[in-house]
């Protein structure tokens, strides 16, 4: 079976996938699920984050190479900023991947900035950044990116992550700059790419996902109620939809 590489979004790390990893393992029991951290997050939280998204891609790919993950083509999955890295990975190193999935991502050359981040999201992010208590801050982030009323255990887990591997405001700023400067380009992806969106996303407009889907006529799935962090809001649904998509793609190729 083909393995997976998973990439998180702005200011988040591998541990933030939570239950999604176990859901993926259930749907793909013969695959290994590899979670890599962007520079400045997770195991690399002390590393400087580049302001160039292609540089971020190359750093993450180097991690995969060092771990021997790329001995055969993999499936790439990225959420938000991670989805942009997935797209750039397909552009720079198309031989690495057999399939790719982008969840609630956007590109500067396809969507205006007010869709890529709702105007009230800027205010919310500033307000959250000013919260001194880490637990309260993580609870506010969870409320912003998720629509389901999650148990306190999720906040506690996110608190522990931030305490152990804190992501700096500087890293988040540099990630935002890298995302803002990046352009998707015009080349068609050589691999099957699935777009997954959350129309009820309160951080990024679903029109950003639709713009990518329409530009390259890609398949797109929409969750009925989840927020920006779809993998946390409804991990069983997401893992099941990925399995169904790959099953359908395999049948079409037969």
From TrEMBL:
Domain of life: Bacteria
A GO MF label: hydrolase activity
Record keywords, A-Z: Hydrolase
Pfam family, one: Abhydrolase_6
Domain spans labelled AB hydrolase-1: 5-234
Database matches in InterPro entries: AB_hydrolase_1, AB_hydrolase_fold
Name assigned to this protein: Alpha/beta hydrolase
Protein's organism: Methylophaga lonarensis MPL
């Amino acid at each position: 079976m083909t393995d997976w590489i998973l990439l998180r979004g702005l200011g988040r790390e591998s541990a933030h996938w939570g239950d999604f990893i176990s859901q993926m393992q259930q749907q793909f029991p013969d695959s290994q699920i590899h979670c890599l951290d962007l520079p400045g997050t997770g195991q690399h939280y002390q590393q400087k984050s580049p302001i160039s998204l292609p540089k971020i891609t190359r750093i993450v790919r180097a991690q995969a190479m060092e771990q021997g993950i790329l001995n055969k083509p993999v499936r790439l999955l990225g959420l938000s900023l991670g989805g942009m890295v997935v797209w750039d990975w397909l552009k720079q190193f198309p031989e690495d991947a057999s399939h790719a999935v982008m969840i609630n991502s956007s590109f500067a050359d396809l969507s205006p900035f007010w869709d890529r981040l709702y105007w009230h999201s800027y205010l919310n992010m500033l307000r959250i950044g000013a919260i001194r208590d880490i637990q309260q801050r993580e609870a506010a982030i969870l409320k912003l990116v998720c629509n389901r009323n999650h148990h306190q255990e999720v906040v506690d887990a996110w608190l522990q992550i931030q305490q152990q591997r804190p992501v700096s405001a500087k890293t988040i700023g540099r990630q935002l700059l890298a995302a803002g400067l990046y352009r998707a380009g015009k080349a068609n992806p050589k691999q099957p790419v699935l777009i997954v969106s959350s129309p009820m996303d309160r951080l990024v407009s679903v029109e950003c996902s639709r713009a990518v889907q329409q530009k390259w006529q890609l398949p797109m799935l929409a969750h009925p109620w989840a927020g920006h962090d779809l993998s946390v809001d409804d991990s069983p649904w997401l893992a099941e939809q990925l399995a169904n998509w790959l099953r359908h793609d395999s049948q079409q190729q037969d």
